[in-house]
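cron nightly-structures :: item 1 of 1
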Amino acid sequence: MDIVLLERVEALGNMGDVVKVKPGFARNFLIPHGKALRATKSNIEAFEAKRAEYEARNAELRSGAEVSANKVDGAQAILIRQASDSLQLYGSVNARDIANALAAQGFEVDRRQVVLDHPIKTLGIHEVRINLHPEVHVTVIANVARSKDEAKVQAETGRAVGAHEEEEELEAPAIEELVEAEVAEHVLEEMAEAEEDEADSASEDNARA
């Protein structure tokens, strides 16, 4: 389906561009959210007639978003969740959770502005992109921890509480396997040397006989 964009849409184009998209994407998202119109002759003519108004409105929204960006950029959303010893959450953290955590700190962020490819399912520090406007993006930190104390430690260290212990647990078997391999190799060498000694002894005995 051909549409005309009423604002910049990432990966599609800028305001006024006529682009082709899947019908479902246009009908279910772009058109209902006021981001585009069907690219009919009448709609394109109507857009061109009001282009100045669209551009003025966009500039106003962008200006407001830039002001908000200066405040929210780098903000930290602390989310307390239960998790296993392997750092896996019993559940997940989604866009709504992050938006709510930011709103609790006074930042005006809608869940639809939170960009998550998939829900967060592990403890730790996660960078999350926020689209305050089609042309204004910032990054916030989702600090997912089991308690406020752990969140504080994670903020200071930049890593999940328990991650170091987990790495040590993973490294230990590897070290043991390496030691076992070295011992096994040494034993084989000794066996080979013993066999060589026996062979040499047998040869000497045969020679004396």
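cron nightly-structures :: done
The first strand starts at residue 2 and ends at 5.
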